[in-house]
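Case study: C2 domain-containing protein.
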Amino acid sequence: AGTRKVVTSDECSDQAKYRSSRNKKKMRMSSMSSSPNDVALSCTIYHAENIDLYSNVTIEERNYCIVFWVEPGKECFTHIEKGLLDPVWKQSFRVPIERPSDYRFLNIEVIRFNSSAARPGTSNGIAAVGRAKIPLPEKISLKKQGRFGLVKLEGVEVKGEGHVSLSMELKNIHPSVYG
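Here is what the predicted structure looks like once written out:
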């Protein structure tokens, strides 16, 4: 804990359990070209707070990770943090974006794994405990950071519950970044 690791987009595809639970198609990563328009999202996810406050989940069942994406079908995952209401990841990612002008948001879901208190009807023990849709920085090299509110679906109601702290920056990438 506390060690920052840059995770490439190829490593983001390692957690197929979540993707298959959402009936996602297999993730296909296209090869990186070396045009000057190539952009990557540099993102560090620090922690979440006040998530899952009113659930009856035991400490042993509090296994959280964050799933995030800019381009649908290209999800990335933090490692799983166990046993905490306010999980800390301090994990950095660099994710290529093929057509940056087509996308405006970073989508985030805080997921609880291996829980018997998952929503009724889910037999896989996976539950989304918070979601956010955060506007991407408007310009290349403009850093955006802060504490962003999460919402949670309870029945037909959407409730604000918890926050996620992160920083992100769109960067021009060069062929040597992934070489």
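For the exam, be able to explain this: The first strand starts at residue 6 and ends at 7.
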